[in-house]
Specification:
Length: 545
């Protein structure tokens, strides 16, 4: 199966999942709002399992699992003993960590927040008790999925989150049917009942569990079986863990940056004042989470799909000592990612307010969210570059170098966040944090390129630079065209069609997004971009079928 075809299969699953994820986020925003205290409490609690997972095992598995499984397939049993032992170890570790972190929910909530009232802290902690068990299933999902990826079965890993979103949407629908909508936070945090908490957070956790457990069906379909095996000694896990040590260190410092940023963002709630019976719309933790969801949409659809397909190939080339082919794969992947990321960046900047209006029912909150989106997507292209280059280092089992350039980025982010906390008004606080994040990512990308070149040689940077320049030219022209259409429709002023209501905002995004995409591709064709042909060729083949 070709890399492009594999990427398209994964992207199709990701697109469907992300569409459902957007519906889920819209329903959540309609249910508990975006700039409300309840939304921030749930936002912190629901993010905790992701943060703990990232610290403990997330990147460690991604960094070492695929290369190790590729090697294990050379064993006489095709790697079954290794996988059984690894999965048994993971289940044991995940289970123990999940129990400990769930018991420590009050401490974790306190770590990620600052300046919250006792009632808001109590609500966030109650949510966290329900959400933290997600940690176990996130780990199981990653392990089961990466085994499938290592065998070039990429579809299940990308399609399983669809079930997660379906379960969560059903749970949200049940919540709305039973308790109604509260997008402006009229219900105080003190008035939340245990039934509301368990239904909202419990269905979120059940969705993650479904996402993990369904992968066992795909294992069975491939003829893979799993047997508990506690004989961990002597099966080669020690080298993998030594390789993972730098990745664990990288994740720890990254989460330090995340803790500082979330804590600073949480202080913005203190700027919410009652005027005429309504809170002033100030972005905080929940708005930052939705902005991140919007930011991650193109990254998940394009970059992750492309990088995952290339990662398996690069790992195979590394095992076979074919380093020139590995670098060729990396360069091809970077150019393809850049082509999509530039279009996505331009589109999200132009359509930031209409997109935000889709998620948020009130204009002031939509504007607040849109400002955060614009600041965040500035870092989309370098973020995608870093993600791809990290996978190249991981395929070569070099986890020390990513630790170094990530440490520099985290230092910049933490320092910048503390400066923002001291000097920026609450209404612009999260926007400032997003700009700091984007700046740190840009520095990280430059260092990643430099360090890869120093260790492994040039990627043909002139070719990559020329291709990126073409993408930027096409992006600027299509962006100006999109902005002109947006202004012709009334812009983002209250009462204007692009932000009039959810339907109008959605139609605006479809219209302008479609025009921008077509113009972008046409301009690239005129500029004779090689990457446009690489992208269009497999799509044509699929359409002909």
């Amino acid at each position: 199966m070709s890399v492009v075809r594999s990427s398209l299969i994964m992207a199709s699953g990701t697109v469907f999942s992300r569409v459902l994820g957007i519906i889920r986020a819209i329903m959540l925003a309609a249910t508990i709002g975006v700039t409300t205290n309840a939304a921030d409490a749930f936002g912190v609690a629901n993010q905790l399992p992701n943060n703990v997972y990232a610290i403990i095992v997330g990147g460690v598995l991604n960094a070492v699992l695929v290369p190790q499984i590729v090697r294990a397939r050379l064993h006489a049993d095709g790697g079954k003993a290794y996988i059984d032992r690894l999965l048994t170890l993971a289940i044991t570790v995940f289970g123990a960590i999940t129990v400990l972190t769930t018991l420590a929910a009050p401490l974790l909530v306190a770590l990620y927040t600052d300046g919250w009232s006792q009632s808001q802290m109590a609500l966030a902690t109650a949510f966290a008790y329900w959400c933290l068990p997600q940690l176990f299933f996130y780990g199981l999902y990653t392990l089961l999925g990466e085994v499938l990826n290592a065998r070039s079965r990429f579809g299940p890993f990308m399609w399983a989150p669809v079930l997660n979103n379906i379960v969560a949407i059903a749970g949200m629908g049940a919540f709305i049917w039973q308790f109604g909508l509260d997008p402006t936070g009229k219900q105080s945090v003190e008035d939340w009942t245990q039934a509301q908490i368990s239904l909202l957070a419990g269905t979120a956790t059940f969705g993650v569990a479904s996402q993990a457990l369904i992968l066992f069906l795909f294992w069975k379909k491939m003829g893979l079986t799993f047997n508990l095996n506690f004989g961990w000694k002597g099966v080669g896990l020690a080298p993998a863990m030594r390789t993972a040590s730098w990745t664990l260190g990288m994740l720890l410092i990254t989460q330090i940056g995340g803790i500082v940023q979330t804590s600073v963002a949480s202080t913005a709630v203190g700027g919410r004042e009652m005027i005429n019976g309504q809170y002033v719309a100030i972005a905080s933790v929940a708005a930052m989470g939705i902005a991140w969801l919007i930011f991650m949409l193109p990254h998940s659809v394009a970059t992750v799909s492309i990088a995952t397909a290339y990662f398996t190939r690069m790992s195979t080339h590394a095992v076979e000592k074919k380093f020139d082919e590995l670098k060729t794969d990396l360069a091809d992947g970077l150019r393809t990612i850049a082509m999509i990321s530039v279009l996505a960046t331009t589109g999200l900047i132009v359509l930031a307010y209409p997109i935000s209006r889709v998620f948020v029912g009130e204009i002031p909150s939509a504007i607040a969210l849109g400002n955060v989106v614009i600041a965040m997507v500035v870092g989309l292209l370098p973020f995608s570059y870093v993600f791809m280059i990290q996978r190249a280092f991981y395929s070569l089992e070099d986890t020390r170098t990513p630790f170094i350039f990530t440490a520099v980025q985290t230092f910049f982010t933490v320092t910048g966040s503390l400066i923002v906390a001291m000097y920026v008004e609450p209404v612009w606080l999260v926007v400032g944090l997003a700009l700091v994040t984007s700046g740190g990512i840009c520095i990280q990308a430059v260092l990643a390129f430099f360090m890869f070149k120093r260790k492994f040689g040039s990627l043909g940077h002139s070719h990559l630079s020329m291709a990126t320049l073409k993408f930027v030219i096409a992006g600027v022209i299509s962006g100006l065209l999109g902005f002109a259409i947006l202004q012709a429709l009334g812009g983002a002023h209250p009462g204007a069609f692009p932000v009039l209501n959810v339907l109008a905002a959605g139609l605006t995004c479809l219209l302008i997004g479609g025009v921008m995409t077509i113009s972008y591709l046409v301009i690239l064709k005129v500029l004779k971009s090689e990457e446009i042909d690489t992208l269009i060729k497999p799509i044509r083949a699929l359409l002909k079928r």
